[in-house]
Design a protein that fits this description.
The chain is of the alpha/beta class and about 350 residues long. It is built from ten helices and 14 strands. The strands form three sheets. Strands 4-1-9-10-11-12-13-14 form an eight-stranded mixed sheet, sandwiched between helices. β13 and β14 form a beta hairpin. α6 crosses α7, α8 packs antiparallel against α9 and α9 packs across α10.
Length: about 350
Amino acid sequence: MPMNGPDSYKFIMSPSEILALLPNLNVLVIGDLMLDHYIWGDVHRISPEAPVPVVHAIKDTYTAGGAANVALNLSSLGIQASLVGCLGRDANAETLLNLLSMSGIDSSGCFHTPNAPTIVKTRVIVRTQQLCRIDREAGRSGYSVDLALDENASFESLVSRADAVIVSDYAKGLITQELLDHVCKLVSRHGKFLAVDPKPARHLQFKGAGLVTPNRHEALELAGLSEPCIGEPYPLEEVCKRIHQKYAPQLLVITLGADGMAICEDGEILQTLPTSAREVFDVSGAGDTVIATLAAALAAGASPVDAAIFANLAAGIVVSKVGTAIVTPHEILHNLNPASPP
């Protein structure tokens, strides 16, 4: 059931109507926290020491990454976002907490570990192009939850207050089967909507989630299928069927890069959407934007297709920016009506 974009579809709830409802929501994000560090510069010569460019650094910027970027995307749309994750006891943790605080994000559920540093991804950007990335992190065991969740009343309180719970797994160690099982139990107890952005390599079970949002490669892994050979079509129908059989999500949304987005229910393709991106500069954090906007729109009462169109618009805006980015209500409305003032 393909479609040619929002103009060819009769909305049950339009993007502007969804935006109007979002400030009424409270969404909890649980996942791997990161600080994204950008070194912006220029290159004029090759090093005499090795055949590598010499970068003249002009400025450094910092933003929230990983699950923290999911929360930042929610906050930028007027949603009250809460966050649970693991940080080191270091200056980078303070930098990230300050960024979250400035955006009004409740980070009271975050905890500090003495066993690992705050995860930092440093990207060197030259003339809008990423030259390299430097990761600072410990092993997964350093970021695991070191508390009795069953007895943690504040954790359950965060779940009970939320309209939706998002699990953002970057395979850094926070999301374990024990934690996921406990989250599923609390979500079921309090009747909340659960969205999961999974990492197939972790082999975690999240059967019955309200929403699952893998990208095209992750969806193949979840389905137990190999990457198609050059010239072969992406086996979308088989992927949807297999993921439903194994995980039974209420809604499966697969992001397909340049091929857009597929919405699946009950193992069947409900709708496919072409990408709304006009230019793609950087896909960093696009998946964060997708799960944030999808989960929020569904929690606001949007239909699966209306929510997917909303998320598709948001992702198209984010990938047109350089670096990990967020989307604002004004940008979404302007994208719907390009004739309006930017």
